[in-house]
Design a protein that fits this description.
The protein has 514 residues and is of the alpha/beta class. The chain is 19% helix and 16% strand. The chain has 9 helices and 22 strands.
């Protein structure tokens, strides 16, 4: 059973304008909109220095709030990153937090106290819209033809409308409040990740049917002319149209905001952009000059602008904490021949950093992070101090003025003043994880990567992973590109940081998780 009882109210100093969870009237509580994009690099936005693609809406969000320059996700891939954000628990503490297949059961145990639980208990309406990728249903996975349970309802969300996994994985359907949208009992859905089901053609068998060809993998069941990961049959009426996904989830998010304009709400929105397959709506196709990947960056910027405009039109922007971020770093060729590499035109998705999605190098987990809250954050703030996704949940609890139940957010630490853009010390340290499980720790200017037998390069995506059999040490202030390994020059620093990782692994942290 979850501990559903909050302890004494602890309103942080300097945040007296907020009411606590059990305090003043509902309208004084700030709304919270959290948008997490997919595979977006820190160099993909013009407010972070991009010159080949322009993101005016996200730039406006940054200019009206705080833009963070040293914020990290916990993992360089999707499922573990999102798990950590909602639970405040490092994903490597749990066995089932790899990249989840489309038919995975719930990754977050229903007994775990989540960020959505926090807001729900504070009287907020809560919703998850868009990409989920944290599993649905029990250990055997979801029943696509009946009620899907457990679900986001069981971890604090009143309402959800989600893409079950990623847009390159089957099933290519939406799930809303425990049921597949537009399901047809006469055309049942079957999904398998080990063998072919039904007679729908695959990309491997029938490449002549494809409108977008795979570059590696992604050659299973064809949906909308695109072969995916995994096998599916049935549910033709329920299939999404790839070019309409951004419009659909943006509309659902706007509907939730409008329906709850008179009450505090928490919206967790995951975009499918800029993940493969990159299929922009015709409004954006060919508009960036950088190919499909650039076009869906424009589409992502439009999505953010639509949510901003909705808040503005309802008079809610002033007292809404609006967060925009990414789950991990960028990748170019991630399985489809969409000319992302060929049409870069000088664009640098990773900015000045090395690596990208899947990697333990900086570009794998150093992500864009922007927070706007006119009632609490000075416009135009630039936050240089370190912050991490793992700390967001307890930081929101501190801003709400409440204590978390015992064992909730076990790895997170509250940094409300950092989130408010104040010039105070940030995180003492940050732990990162690569796709292959390699860990790194950053403390001050130093970054230590533990010894690893993982490959040095992921060949399919041409991503440098950051694998060192003897470990690595970088001064990321002087060497942000992580080119000079100083592990032999500063062995005492390497030993100290290795000890910090070992202590985290052994349970010498903020209380055992049970």
């Amino acid at each position: 059973m979850k501990n559903k009882i909050f302890l004494a109210s602890l309103l942080p100093a300097g945040l007296a304008l907020l009411s606590s969870c059990g305090g003043a009237g509902q309208k004084e509580k700030p709304n919270v909109v959290f948008i997490i994009s997919d595979d977006l690099g820190i160099g993909d936005l013009s407010c972070y220095g991009a010159t080949k693609v322009h993101t005016p809406n996200i730039d406006r969000l940054a200019s009206q709030g705080a833009q963070f320059m040293n914020t990290y996700s916990s993992s360089s891939v999707s499922t573990p990153s999102r798990f950590c954000l909602l639970t405040g628990k490092y994903p490597w503490r749990q066995d089932n937090t790899g990249i989840a297949p489309g038919n995975a059961g719930m990754v977050i145990d229903t007994a775990v106290y989540t960020m959505a639980d926090l807001f729900k208990e504070c009287g907020y309406a809560t919703a998850a819209i868009g990409k989920w990728h944290l599993g649905l249903g029990g250990a055997e996975g979801p029943d696509w033809n009946g009620e899907i349970t457990p679900s986001p309802h069981d971890i604090g969300f009143d309402h959800y409308f989600v893409i079950p996994a990623t847009v390159d994985r089957v099933p290519c359907v939406y799930v809303e409040d425990n049921y597949v949208v537009n399901a047809d009992a006469s055309d049942p859905i079957y999904v398998d990740y080990g063998r072919k089901v039904g007679d729908w053609p695959t990309g491997k068998e029938h490449p002549e049917l494809l409108t977008l060809h795979p570059s590696h993998g992604h050659d299973n069941t064809i949906i909308n002319g695109i072969s995916r990961i995994g096998y599916m049959t049935g549910g033709k009426r329920a299939l999404w149209k790839d070019e309409d996904i951004a419009d659909t989830i943006t509309s659902k998010a706007r509907q939730f905001i409008i329906a709850n304009k008179d009450n505090p709400f928490f919206l967790y929105m995951g975009t499918q952009d800029v993940h493969v397959p990159r299929i922009p709506h015709p409004r954006f196709a060919g508009k960036s000059g950088l190919g499909a990947r650039g076009d869906v960056i424009l589409q992502l910027d439009w999505t953010v602008g639509e949510i901003m405009n909705t808040l503005d039109s309802l008079g809610l922007a002033e007292n809404t904490i609006f967060v925009f971020t990414s789950d991990n770093g960028p990748v170019l060729d991630d399985g489809y021949r969409d000319c992302a590499v060929e049409m870069l035109n000088g664009h640098t998705p990773s900015g000045i950093y090395r690596g990208g999605k899947y990697s333990i190098y900086e570009a794998g987990t150093r992500i864009p992070f922007i927070v706007r809250w006119p009632s609490g954050i000075r416009a135009g703030t630039r936050q240089e101090n370190m912050f991490s996704h793992v700390d967001f949940f307890p930081t929101m609890a501190a801003i709400a003025g409440v204590s978390l139940p015992q064992h909730a957010a076990p790895d997170g630490r509250p940094y409300p003043d950092v989130l408010m853009g104040k010039d105070v010390p940030g995180c003492e340290y940050v732990i990162q994880q690569s796709m292959y499980g390699t860990l790194a720790v950053i403390e001050g200017v130093w970054k230590y990567i533990e010894p690893s037998n993982a490959p040095e390069i992921q060949r399919e995506t041409n991503t440098e992973l950051g694998s060192y059999k003897g470990g690595a040490l970088f001064n990321i202030q002087d060497d942000p590109g992580e080119r000079v390994n100083l592990v032999e020059s500063y062995p005492e620093i390497a030993r100290r940081l290795a000890g910090r990782l070992a202590a985290s692994r052994s349970g010498e942290w903020r209380g055992e998780y049970k």
